[in-house]
Write a structure and sequence with these properties.
27% helix, 3-stranded mixed beta sheet, hypothetical protein PF0899 fold, binds zinc ion, 2 helices, single chain, alpha+beta, 3-stranded antiparallel beta sheet
Length: 115
């Protein structure tokens, strides 16, 4: 279950940042998760709870925003949003090996701080 190791390192980074800014009270963590990140949203949410145990982040919320897939076709010179992640070729010219612009994100977008 690699979601747990992701959650643990995420929590460690948040704690570091919070302490670096003088001990912020984090109420919620906003995460951007791409559909191609290979991370299961529910498993990550569950792992986050476990990772928070014993830290001051316990009780904080994890808000996961799913980032849809966006590819760029060099031939059409256009961005495309495929309907499924199984369909990685250009919907217009059907050429493969597209550049992925969005969809691989796994990043903390924002921290909600208790005033
Ligand atoms: Zn194309």
């Amino acid at each position: 279950m690699h979601e747990l190791s992701i959650a643990v390192s995420m929590v460690e980074r948040i704690i570091e940042e919070s302490e670096g800014r003088g001990g912020l009270q984090v109420e919620a963590v906003h995460l951007r998760l791409g559909v191609l990140s290979g991370v299961d949203k529910d498993a990550l949410a569950f792992s986050y709870e476990i990772a928070c145990e014993g830290t001051f982040l316990v009780g904080s919320r994890l808000v996961i925003e799913t980032v849809p897939l966006l590819i760029y076709c060099d031939i059409c010179k256009m961005e495309h949003a495929p309907e499924s992640i199984q369909q990685m070729d250009c919907p217009q010219c059907h050429s493969p090996s597209q550049k992925i612009i969005r969809g691989r994100e796994l990043e903390v977008a924002a921290l909600e701080i208790t005033a």
